[in-house]
Amino acid sequence: MLYEQIESNALITGYTDVTPFLAYFCENVYGRLQFGTDASHADMQIYKDALEAGTVTEKERQLWEYVLSAYGTEEFTTKWLEKDFGNAAYATIRAFVMKFVSMGLLKARKAGNKVLYRTI
Are the beta carbons of 73 and 120 closer than 8 angstroms? Predict the structure, then answer.
């Protein structure tokens, strides 16, 4: 059926139009590949709810946006974040990571004498 639609469109216009194939691909292939995105949407909803409730400060919002853009899913330490972000005290960063770990937005992993954090 899809091939017939492409073929009939080509007879009418004189060009092979792959739009029906792209629509099929988006709906039936690409749409099914995004099955793992529900968790990240739930995480962002937790963040948005905390932001609306006022439990996230402006500095924590800036830190969270920085972590997402600078580290993505890579691990980081509080010292690295303090050095890279540059505009927050160590105590602020420590409170930020502890709060976001308790909210389930960051994951902590002990590595020797330091703790590595990453987004979930």
Answer: no
| Spatial CA neighbour of 77 closest among 105, 44, 43, 113 | 113
Decide: 50 and 56 in contact? Cβ < 8 Å: yes
Compute the distance between CA of residue 28 and CA of residue 12 in angstroms, rounded to an integer: 26
Q: Is 45 helix (H, G, I), strand (E, B) or coil?
A: helix
Q: Is the pTM of this model over 0.70?
A: no
Residue type, 50: A
Which domains does the chain show, CATH number per domain? 2-35 (no CATH), 56-119 (1.10.10.10)
How far is it, in rounded angstroms, from Cα 53 to Cα 48? 8
Residue 64 confidence class, pLDDT cut points 50, 70, 90: very high
